[in-house]
Design a protein that fits this description.
alpha+beta, Ribosomal Protein S5, domain 2, Alpha-Beta Plaits, four-stranded antiparallel β-sheet, 8 helices
Amino acid sequence: MSVRSWFAKSPSNIALIKYMGKIDASVNAPTNKSLSYTLGHLLSYVHISLCEKDSWEPLLSIIDGEKEIQFSDIQISEKGQARFLKHLNFLKTQLGLENYKFKIQSNNLFPQDCGLASSASSFAALTSAVYLAAQELVAADLTVYQLANLSQRGSGSSCRSFFSPWSIWESDGAKEVSIDYDQLLHMVIVVEDKIKSVSSSEAHLRVTSSSLFNNRVDRANTRCLDLLSALNQKKWKAAYEITWAEFWDMHVLFETAEPHFSYMTSGSLEVLRFAEKQWLVKKDGPLVTMDAGANVHLIYRKDQQSLYAETRLKFSGKYKVFGSNE
């Protein structure tokens, strides 16, 4: 007799206006608005099955449609596993699954814990998989907004992964937002894929100690409105200038926190200067951003295929490059 099981996949997302700091850590409610673009090519997979004890182990392969996906073996720290299992237990209490035990298997199509929002996509996938089980086992019935709010409790930014291609997240939850640029080319240049020494959760705590954090909420909320306006008015250069200022704002908070820390590397700066040069020389270029990590995200319009290809050629021999146009 086969074991009953369920599987879900969820995309990562990249915030162009960052979420840094929480007004309520118990529910991961953000201090400011954030605007993100959903990355459908950076996926996390979660498979859950009924068993005698809640547990986690790596997912090594899965059938997705007609395609079999083979994953590299991964290991999650005891702390990371405990966080995953804690969210599983939270979901079980919310969805009426207290009498069931599950084995969780998970993995990603991209590196984890290095600033690519693997927690966001993994927790969104876990939430979705458990909800599929609850639909079948106890006839659960939730809206996507309710599901996103549940996922947020495990990883704040995971709520944005339920909406595509754009999502705005405020203190009362995430929702899809309409922007005319709905099919963009995304590329992340992974200059460093080792696990971060300062986790994103820890970064959220430390930034509040920076003297520059005092006006951070106002700066971010203003930029969010300005960026929405620029994108909807097809003012691409203005959008670039806003996103450029925004990610530097966040990284300066890291550098001025107590104790201070940094994710920037020489590789990060190499990629940033290349993107900046595209703008200076060609009067056009990508939107540029970084998360809490060393790696650089570049977003191009569909009509910027040649710039995208130029960047891909420049860095693919030196760094890992994950692109939506592959």
